[in-house]
Design goal:
Helix content: 55-70%
Number of helices: 33
Shape: elongated
Radius of gyration: 48 Å
Structural class: alpha+beta
Distance between the termini: 158 Å
Length: about 900
């Protein structure tokens, strides 16, 4: 011993070594104190617990280490590595029987947290060390049997626990000395059968290296293989072949293998073996313990399939310990406790734990409280003595309301679900309408009375459990308080008075209803006017911004590099201080006024010398980067043109809307130079039938705007045909309605007009933004129905407006085309001096002042200037139809000089 003792005095660095160790201990203690403070502040923070355990284990403070491990275990389940360290430390110190029992209890806690084959092997090995005590052998066999149940189906690691079990039993068999007495022979035979039975059970399970196990079995039985065992082995091997690809995916993927495990779970669920489903869930959770959905699905499987209370409740407990932030796991746990008839104290304790789990959202607390309130309501015997339970329920309601208000304020329960629930219990079960009305008044006084839904709930409660007086009062209060759709309450009130009230009460309620509706309509009209004004102002601001942006984008012309246009005479110009060219001052040398050409000032575009038609083509071709869309008119029969699209609508949205009609071959959305949509596109289908079906979706609302869908036609062909796109004759089966309220919908129109006959179509006329113009068309299948509807509905009042209904008779569109309209062209514009402007090339106006002398003007066929010309006589009395003399220059001169 003396030789191994270190003499610090003779060591020159001994003092420094002692100081270093002291500094390390001080640093470790400071770190431990800091971790203790963090854990006290937030006990649900996982990492400080692990760091504190590691620091205390290095420091060797066993008591504090045990305390730290216990504290962490109370909040979190421990991983297999943490348990293994804890069990290893405690096993080394366990000498007495009491200490070994304490370690055995730790093993029981460890194997419940997560599935771990090494932990079960360690537990079995520890139990073998206690074979010398009473019932030690049976205890070891019990541990092995439980281990086989828990991890014996593990495809890759399960064989280890089976082999350990066989080796243990085989070792016991080896200790038995062969004897001649029958008792010894019977014990030997029983032990041999026990080993053989383990072989048979293992060979029925698909496990890795099962071929090796089968070879060992054949050696054990000396080649006399049981046919049933051989058949079971073949089935297990076939099963293993199906599982090997799934296991290989797990081995080749990265941790935590979530997608591979989910695929594995789906496979086992389809196979339908509950034990194997349980095993794969446990394997999944060992690597994905922080995924709440897996716990939820696993506990649901245990509650609905296995229905073993101890197994189900322990799994629920593990779930909330792994994912304490998931409110749905706590709710499922509370319901499982009720399902398996657990005592009230256990349920209440679980609810208290859930409330301290660290939820942050009011919705989570509301769901949790409602689950507990449901439990309290169900435990009350409403037909028997229930004073105590009812008192607890009411106290809990008060506690819930106070807790939610203190934690989240008045907006903790926007729909007042908890108070409504309480009022319903008081009214339905307790027959205490006075208390129920107090609760509802509390709801209304919190500012919830502006919504009609709240009043409907209150009215329904009074209708079912109250009396007519209070029911009428609730409807009247709601009629004057609701701001969204009080018409619903008014209609309910009128129907109630009509069916159950007196004539006086009906008149009174009707008067109040109409007065309130009048005030409401005036208020809505003002709101609509303000909204229209706001939209108009926004539109004007947008236009102004466009103008300012366009003006700012103009760049000044470079006066130095700009080339002057050629002309008949160009004089050299001076340049002023700002860079503009100015004409020279008159001089004695140059008194004659000469034309000059100067560059325009910055911001002013030069006049192009290109012809107008050519300039228009150039401007169109050089628009600022606009993305042109080429269209092949060969496919017009299966292409539709979409317009009035919202600028935010993309190709994916268009495909989503029209893909149900058939295969879409191409979507050509027209965009500007910045890649932004211009609001229209070409939609090409694979078949003509799909294109026809798409036309029926005309004016369908997409993102609040009606899309216009039309056939895709060649513009040149359509201009030549010069056909109208709408009928111009009287449509006796179609009605035209005007004066509709702007809030009227197509469904409301259909409800009004469908009672007069079968409808073919109802269409509201809207602006391009989808807002109604107050006009509509209603088309019937026959003329008789349209005529009946005309008589019945013309002058009808819809909401607060009187509508006018007429037979649809679109006016004929006038033609302002070329002057050569031909005979019968009544609408042709006659050219006259000062008669305005007539359409010129490309639809532009042109002057109508003729520059040809009247004497030379020839009368066009079918036209005249006077009655004389109609008779074929000119002003000189000559027959213009017979005059064929070719006029010369002298003739023109004589006419001008009046010779």
């Amino acid at each position: 011993m003396a030789e191994n003792t270190v003499n610090y005095e003779s060591d020159p660095d001994s003092s420094n070594s002692a100081e270093d160790r002291s500094d390390d201990e001080e640093v470790d203690q400071n770190g431990i104190n800091r971790l203790n403070s963090e854990i006290e502040t937030n006990p649900f923070n996982y990492d400080p617990h692990v760091q504190r355990i590691n620091s205390l284990r290095k420091a060797g403070d066993l008591d504090k280490l045990r305390h730290a491990r216990e504290k962490m275990s109370e909040i979190f389940p421990l991983t297999a590595d943490l348990w293994m360290d804890w069990l290893t430390d405690e096993s080394k110190l366990a000498i007495s029987e009491a200490e070994r029992e304490s370690v055995a209890k730790l093993f029981e806690r460890a194997v419940r947290d997560y599935l771990s084959v090494p932990l079960w092997l360690e537990y079995a090995q520890f139990s073998i060390g206690g074979m010398g005590v009473k019932d030690g052998l049976e205890n070891v066999r019990s541990v092995f049997e439980r281990a086989i149940t828990a991890v014996g189906l593990h495809v890759t690691q399960g064989a280890m626990i089976w082999e350990a079990y066989r080796e243990f039993e085989n070792a016991i068999l080896g200790t038995m000395q062969p004897g001649l007495d029958s008792e010894t022979q019977n014990k030997t035979k029983q032990q041999s059968s026990r080993v053989l039975n383990i072989f048979k059970r293992q060979l029925t399970i698909p496990l890795f290296d099962m071929e090796k196990t089968f070879e060992e079995y054949k050696e054990w039985v000396k080649g006399e293989v049981d046919p049933q065992v051989h058949q079971a082995y073949k089935k297990a091997k076939m099963k293993l072949e199906k599982l090997i690809p799934l296991e290989e995916e797990l081995l080749s993927s990265e941790s935590p293998h979530l997608s591979e495990y989910l695929k594995y779970i789906d496979f086992e669920i389809k196979e339908g073996d509950p034990a194997r489903i349980q095993c794969i869930y446990e394997r999944t959770l060992a690597d994905n313990c922080l995924v709440p959905d897996i716990w939820k699905n696993y506990t649901k499987f245990l509650d609905t399939q296995l229905k073993i209370p101890s197994l189900s409740l322990s799994t629920h407990e593990r779930a909330v310990r792994n994912c304490p932030w998931s409110v749905i796991l706590w709710i499922n746990y509370i319901q499982a406790l009720e399902r398996y008839k657990q005592p009230y104290d256990k349920v209440k304790e679980t609810v208290d734990r859930a409330l301290q789990a660290g939820f942050t959202q009011e919705e989570e607390f509301r769901q949790l409280w409602l689950t507990f309130l449901d439990y309290l309501r169900r435990r009350i015997d409403w037909n028997g003595e229930n004073a105590k339970e009812l008192s607890e329920l009411r106290e809990t309601f008060e506690r819930v309301v106070d807790h939610m208000n203190q934690s989240f304020g008045s907006e903790a329960d926007p729909s007042c679900t908890i108070l409504q629930y309480w009022a319903k219990i008081e009214a339905k079960f307790c027959k205490n309408m006075t208390r129920a009305r107090e609760l509802w008044n509390n709801i209304i006084n919190q500012g919830r009375g502006s919504g009609v839904r709240i009043w409907l709930e209150y009215a329904n409660l009074e209708r079912m459990h109250g009396d007519d007086k209070h029911y009428r009062r609730v409807l009247l209060r709601g009629l004057h308080s609701a701001t969204d759709w009080p018409e619903t309450l008014g209609e309910m009130l009128i129907n109630f008075e009509r069916e159950e009230g007196t004539l006086e009460s009906l008149d009174s309620s009707t008067e109040k209803y109409e007065a309130q509706m009048k005030r409401l309509h005036e208020r809505r009209q003002k709101i609509e006017e303000k909204e229209a004004e706001r939209q108009y102002q926004a539109s004007e601001r947008k236009k102004q911004m466009k103008v300012e942006k366009k003006a700012a984008s103009r760049k000044p012309v470079d006066t130095v590099a700009h080339k002057q246009q050629p002309g008949p005479y160009v004089e050299e110009m001076d340049v002023d201080e700002e860079g503009f060219k100015v004409p020279p001052l008159p001089s004695s040398k140059n008194q004659k006024s000469q034309p000059f050409i100067s560059s325009p000032p910055p911001g002013v575009k030069e006049k192009s010398t290109e012809p107008p038609a050519k300039k228009l083509k150039i401007d169109m071709a050089h628009a600022e980067g606009e993305q042109s869309v080429k269209h092949d008119h060969i496919n017009d029969n299966r292409t539709v043109f979409l317009s009035n699209l919202a600028y935010s609508v993309a190709d994916e949205k268009i495909k989503e809307i029209f893909s149900e009609l058939g295969e879409i071959t191409e979507i050509r959305l027209v965009k500007d130079y910045r890649g932004r949509s211009k609001g229209y596109c070409y939609l090409e289908f694979a078949s003509q039938d799909s294109a026809k079906a798409a036309l029926k979706k005309d004016r369908q609302l997409v993102e609040g705007r009606p899309i216009f869908i039309s056939k895709c036609e060649d513009k040149s062909m359509s201009l030549n045909k010069n056909k109208l796109k709408f009928p111009v004759q009287l449509e006796k089966h179609k009605l035209f309605i005007r004066g509709l309220p702007l809030s009227t919908t197509e469904q409301k129109l259909e409800d009004i007009f469908k009672e007069y006959g079968e409808l073919k179509d109802v269409r509201l006329v809207t602006y391009r933004n989808g807002h109604s113009k107050g006009l509509a068309y209603v088309e019937y299948c026959d003329e008789v129905s349209a005529a009946t509807a005309l008589v019945k509905t013309d002058g009808m009042k819809v909401d607060d407006k009187t509508i006018s209904v007429a037979i649809s008779n679109p006016p004929e569109r006038k033609s302002f085309g070329k002057t050569g309209g031909g005979e019968g062209s009544e609408n042709k514009i006659i050219a006259s001096l000062g008669g305005g402007r007539e359409p010129g090339p490309r639809g532009r106006g042109r002057t109508q002042v003729s520059l040809l002398p009247r004497a030379l003007q020839r009368t066009q066929p079918g036209t005249s200037r006077s009655n004389d010309f109609q008779n074929g006589i000119n002003g000189a009395g000559e027959d213009v139809n017979t005059t064929k003399k070719q006029l010369t220059n002298n003739d023109f001169r004589n006419m001008l000089l009046k010779k």
